[in-house]
Here is the input.
Amino acid sequence: MSYSSTVRGRALIAAAAPLLAVMAACAPAVANTSAASAPQPVAAQNSAPVRWGSAVLRQDAAWYASAEARRLADSVLLYQFANGSWPKNTDMSAPPAAPVDPELGDTIDNQATTLEMEFLARVIQAGAPNSAAYVAAFDKGFDWVLAAQYPNGGWPQFFPLRTGYYTHITYNDDAMVRVLNVLRDVSNGAGPYGFVDTGRKARAAEAVTRGIDIILKTQIVQNGKLTVWCAQHDEVTLAPAWARKFEPPSLSGYESVGITRFLMGIPNPSPEVIAAVEGSVAWFRSTVIPDIAVERFTNAEGQNDRRVIPAPGARLWARFYELGTNRPIFIDRTSVFQPALADLDRERRAGYNYYDGAGANLIDRDYPAWRRRVGLPAT
Here is the structure.
């Protein structure tokens, strides 16, 4: 599928021109920030602008009624594409100074679209004067999200579909789970979503039901036992699938944490959901890698690098486990499986997370609390 930066960019700027004219003189320049930025201290929140990223969802309730929050929300409106999606990897702290690259749009990757919807919902809940415009933008994003869902319940990484691995059902980096969490809260009218109309709430509930169904259908079975999920599954066969050259069909020690937590959040889980959670937790318990940590360091050439070091008592899981054997695997852009992190090319070793520790809280904290909540005995 081809995309025209010029056509879509001009359309975006033309639609935004009136608001740009009002905001241009007063919008401060704000540095780019990672979507994974750590929460700012309260003092910092009171003295410095809140930068675009996941931190915009972690502010005190009163902040969303502030002039700063409304300024940021106005800027977010200017980045929305005509189909309702927002671009990924884009700092929205200030209005766009040039047409937004359409190649960054039409996606749920890297928190795109869901982050904007979650933020706007909080500003709407706070009673912003421009709430009608924010509601319209939210609704447009909501409608795009539902249009992107496959009939089988999964979501591709991009919609309209782009050729390649982008068509796969995308659990990678929690993309689909983020969508489902938003839709679940919308359907319940939870948190800041009380403003959503009843028709959209009903559609959200139906989309979540189908999403749960595809999660159950894509859970990988080994030797007759339910385990976890691959970061991406073929949208037709539902089998684990390749994404990038260093993202093979495998069992995910990272994405499966978010999927399992989502299933744990279902109020009245069916026997199938309970079995899915139990199978996942059992797999995490059996695949833990004890007594190691991953350390960042500067190598002899002055380059950033990572290495595995002893860490008594620590627990990690590999990002990728081999299908059938549950053996941790490491792979870089050569697409050749390697036995250890140290065997990878430095570029990937330093630039990609091949280990993760989120499984620890899943099995130590979340799982016992979930069993209590659904009336199951402690294990």
Q: What stands out?
A: Confidence is low (pLDDT under 50) at residues 1-45. The radius of gyration is 22 Å. The chain has eleven helices and eleven strands.
